[in-house]
Every structure is written in structure tokens, then in C-alpha cells.
Amino acid sequence: MIQTKGITKSFGALQVLKGIDLSINKSEVVAIVGPSGAGKTTLLQIIGTLDSPDSGSLMINQTETSRLNDKDLAAFRNKNIGFVFQFHQLLPEFTALENVMIPALIGKEKPAVAEKRAKEMLDFMKLSDRMEHKPAELSGGEKQRVAVARALINQPAVILADEPSGSLDTKNKEELHALFFELRDQMKQTFVIVTHDEQLAMHTDRVIHLKDGVVIDL
Ligand SMILES: Nc1ncnc2c1ncn2[C@@H]1O[C@H](COP(=O)(O)OP(=O)(O)OP(=O)(O)O)[C@@H](O)[C@H]1O
Ligand SMILES: [Mg+2]
Hints:
This protein has 218 residues and is an alpha/beta fold. The protein is built from 7 helices and 10 strands.
């Protein structure tokens, strides 16, 4: 489902990614681990088409992403890729329900359909009774579950998560991780998760180790 070949990326004189070849299959939960500064976030941003590599290819669902112009790429990203960040990045002015609906509305879904689907997602996240609340009125764990619902709303090919449980306490962390595996098992959802959490990494289908801009085999 996702293939990268020879991806390189430099910031000025610093070469952060030195030729990354990866292949990620449907309904796989893959962890990317490695020391700080290894290039994990950079790689995830490139896989998410938020940043472009200096060279190399990125195929997502048979589409070579470098061939898309900016407008098509934005539409492709909206449809195929869901993001979950360390800090939820929900829009503070909007309710949980509205936050979840936004990617569907951007994808030109009918508001009634977007609302129905958003409610189903929030229900699955056990947030039915919190959906009219704004982010400031939700707990950290609840906010992250809203962010996961938002990432899922367009039924993306893959969810990319960068330290998704990095700001959560143990209980909320464990709940969030359990949710990822539930989504893999019940919805065949694919995940690529950058994490420092060894518990999470241990339970994923595959761990990719990144060090100094290359994938290392252990
Ligand atoms: N926009 C940028 N401009 C310049 N340097 C950058 C930029 N983004 C990242 N870097 C540098 O690239 C290297 C890799 O950064 P990256 O954020 O990918 O690391 P990481 O593996 O995610 O680390 P961490 O675990 O601390 O989040 C670092 O040395 C960082 O300072
Ligand atoms: Mg990072």
C-alpha cells in the first residue's frame, strides 16, 4: 500500500534522510523508532506528503505522489491520509463533532453525511456524550480520541501518527494504543506510528529502526 524508494532529504548541509526504502502493507500497524534527531518526523511528514523529498519515490495506493500538482496532492492527502500528532491540534473554536466533520467537508461530503459519519466515529471512540464540547472542555485522552476520529473520517488508506501518546498518562496511553489495534482488527486500518513508547512498539506488527537517516536491521 505504501512504498518508498531511495528517499533523501537535507536541511541545508544536514542530510537527515539518506535513502529510505520501505514497504507497508494494508492493515499493518508499523512503528518507527529511533533516537531523537534520527529523522523520524521528517520521514513521516514526507510519507504524509506534507513535505517533499529531495529525491526518491513515494507510492501510496498505486499513486506516485510526486506526479501530483499541489491541488491534486491536497485532495489526495485529504482522502488517503489521516494524521494524529502528539498534541491533538484540534481547532479550539469548534466542537468535537465539528472537528471530526471538517476533513469530510473539505472532501466535499454532504454535511448531513459528514455529521452522521462523524457521530458514528465518536460513538466508536466512546465519546457520544462529549461531542458537543470544545477541545478545552475535554481531557487529554478524550482530545486524542477526537483526533483519531478526525483522522478516520475519510476512511484513509493510512493513519500517520507522530508520538500520539507522548502527552498522555499511562491509562490514557494504554487506551489509545488499544484503540489502534481495535481499528486494525475491525476496520483493517493501516497505521504508521512514530513512538518512543516501548510497550506500544512491542505490540505492533513490525518495528522499523531509524538511525542517522537510514533504516537499520537489528
Ligand atoms: N525544517 C527543518 N529545518 C532544519 N533542520 C531540521 C528541520 N526539521 C528537522 N530538522 C533537523 O533534522 C533532524 C531530524 O529531525 P526529526 O524531527 O526528523 O527528528 P526525530 O527523529 O523526529 O526526532 P525526535 O525524536 O526528537 O522527534 C534534526 O537534527 C533536526 O534538527
Ligand atoms: Mg520527531
